[in-house]
Amino acid sequence: MATDSNRDQILSSLRRSRGRDGPVDEATAESLRARIAGHKRNIVPARTDTDHAGLVDLFETMAQKVFATTTRVSDMAEVPDAVAEYLRGANLPSEVVMAPDTDLDAAPWADTSMLEIRRGVPDEPDQVSITSAPSAVAETGTLAMYSGPAHPSTLNFVPETHVVVLPASRVVKSYEDVFDAVRELTADPDRGGLPPRTVNFITGPSRSGDIEQTLLLGAHGPRRLHIVIVEDD
Amino acid sequence: MTTSSTVHSTSRNFKNNARDQLANEDLQAALNKARGHFVDGRATARDNLPEFDDLRDQARGIKDHTLEHLDFYLEAYEEKVVESGGHVHWARTAADAQQIVLDICRSVDAKQVNKGKSMIGEEIEINKALEADGIRPIETDLGEYIIQLRGELPSHIIAPAVHLTKAQVEASFRENHTELDEDRVLEEPLSLLDEARTILRKKYFEAEVGITGANLLIAETGSSIIVTNEGNGDLSQLIPKVHIVLASLEKIVPTLEDAATILRVLARSATGQEFSSYTTLSTGPKREGDPDGPEQYHVILLDNGRTDMLGTEFEEMLRCIRCGACMNHCPVYQSVGGHAYGWVYPGPMGSVLSPGLIGVDEAGHLPNASSFCGRCEEVCPMHIPLPKMMRHWREREFESHLSPGSVRVGLGVWSFFARRPRLYQLATGLQMRMLSWMGRKRGRLSSVPLAKGWTKYRELPAPQGRTFQSRWRSGERV
Ligand code: SF4
Fold it and tell me: Any idea what the Cα angle at residue B21 is, between residues B18 and B23, rounded to 5°?
């Protein structure tokens, strides 16, 4: 591939268009590097200027607005029953595929005879997935998911129904808060200085407006997104 | 400017295209349904966010800053992609980009490529190139899937099948999905969606390569971002072992925070959503121990004429974030639909971008497809002065003597419409609304020669100020 000469030609036309015949001067480069390193926040909407309980409420309202459903439970012990009840109520199968995620181990799944649980990556026929969410953005009712050994991203997309367990303490204000959390993860020496491969911001179930602009849920990703909020604060 | 040898545009025929489209009842019915949806949606989203206009100003500032130092940020980005185990390929032309995609596909002996929606994919006609190489491209976005079955170009940058009625979609499905029961009921949009879902579901697991576009590239982290509603882009990039990102150079921003600002105006301007269902950041291939995700991650950075626009009066076009608001609010687009523009980018943004990418002789007529009502600039989240730039192209086209006679002597697109009053009788509702909208904004002409049939319905709106030609003659550069 002749991309090296392509690269040089593109870079030199970019520079010519700015009246330069080489890279930016060192002082400018320094200030641009500082701009990146500083990653200053721009305007963050004021709707999230509230206390933490207010943020959890805002998250829930915004998620419902985009057709997610929610339940609240008061601790992890109640999660399996809440999930089973949701699946039964929506007439959904009780076989689920669950992330091999230690967060979820805190719930007494074995006590619920109503769920048949497999841990791992979803296959095409799997109907229901259960994952936790490491973070959630109140501003728009958005879940944030990070890929990793215990967090297959395909669980967020392949099954028809995605059930998410969200400890309320993880609700943050804005996308920017999630970015800071991702930066913290990235700094973990075990990760080789790399962020998770995939960060999914998920706002409601999958949808499409491609047929006469009619809003339809469940285009290719989940038709249903159910969030169990665990009031752990 | 660069002209790619692979371009197949019918932009030269805008007038003929437009005439056909005005007489196309299916198109008019489909456009009628879509219009209110987009316009009202954006207005509501704007009203729900008091900071909306301040965010637009900041978003513009971010893009201007980035364009000023594009070489720096692209190199910084490249370094990060490589650090995370990915590959960056630079492509000057559409043909270069095609070649790079084919080479990657061949290296893994790919038989099938799944595609998330990508306008760059359309721009470089990647499906044709893949097919010619014996590789099956599968469009997975519902709208793109529909137009792929029909062998059409997208007619809108975010709603590729907006020109079709559900009956047309049904007919295409019946024609193509012959393995299914002929007597199945397929009238409702939901049954159409379900059928496409079922058919595509299996295909997600068959491809060796997944191709997506990118709404943004992040210099800070080497990440690419896709913004979608269906989840097809994610399935396309997560399951195959190779993920290729097609992105044009100007998609880059310095930091994640800069991306957040643009994301806050993008969905609101596009569909009126506060945030799209899925915003996905991808950085490199899967990590050790990850149970899913691609083993290879490639980004193709496409120029294809964009560097030639930098430093010219068209530079600001490179701020475009492809939200589609300009076409959703354009009376000309809303009358003739996207296909009349003859190439992949329709509406006001296409009228400015296409001549830059495929040349003024190919697409130089498009800037005449404007009423200069200014709505596009008003709603553009990036404050791109589209009408001004259309005038610049008209000057260039005029100077290069490419203008067909009717454009030089008349009122541009308005004279074209005015001379074809019958078209206005054919395409009723929308034109009426469009004209009354125009009329409300400024003065009216009660009659224009050659437009009798038209003014029978409505007074003709006055074109803004003097005509382009008279300005040009007096040496003004508008
Ligand atoms: S020109 Fe502006 S309004 Fe049109 S697609 Fe681009 S950003 Fe959106």
Answer: 115
Q: State the Cα–Cα distance between residues B440 and B436, nearest whole angstrom.
A: 6
- SS in 3 state form for B107-144? HCCCCEEEECCCHHHHHCCHHHHHHHCCCEEEECCHHH
Q: Chain-centre distance of CA A205, in angstroms?
A: 12
Neighbours of B199 (CB within 10 A): 16
B291 has pLDDT over 70: yes
Q: Which atom of ligand 1 is nearest to the CA of B323?
A: 8
- All structural domains of chain A, each given as residue ranges with its CATH number in brackets, are 51-230 (3.40.50.10420)
CATH 3.90.1170.20, domain B25-307, yes or no: no
For residues A142-162, average pLDDT: 96
The token pair at B276 is 């799209």
Structure-token pair, residue A79: 């999660």
B210: Cβ–Cβ under 8 A, 6 or more apart, which residues? B113, B114, B115, B116, B236, B237, B238, B239, B240, B242, B243, B244, B294
Q: Sketch the domain layout of chain B as residue ranges.
A: 25-307, 420-473
Give the number of other CB atoms < 10 A from CB of residue A188: 10
Eight-class DSSP state of B286? P
Residues of chain B contacting residue A19, judged by C-beta atoms under 8 Å apart: 311
B290, B295, B309, B310: best to mutate for the A interface, most A CBs within 10 A: B290
pLDDT band at A159 (very low <50, low <70, confident <90, very high): very high
Nearest to B231 among A62, A124, A219 (CB): A219
**Is residue A56 classed as helix, strand or coil in its secondary structure?**
helix
Cross-chain residue pair A11–B74, CB shorter than 8 Å: yes
User: Given CB atoms, is B264 within the 8 Å cutoff of chain A?
Assistant: yes
Can you say how many angstroms the Cα of residue B477 is from the centroid of all Cα atoms in its chain?
28
Q: Indicate which residue's Cα is closest to atom 3 of ligand 1.
A: B380
ipTM tops the 0.85 cut: yes
CB A162 within 8 A of CB A129: yes
B317 Cα nearest atom in ligand 1: 1
**CA distance linking residue B281 with residue A145, whole number of Å:** 10
Alpha-helical (H) ranges within A72-192 are 79-89, 102-105, 175-187
Model pTM greater than 0.80?
A: yes
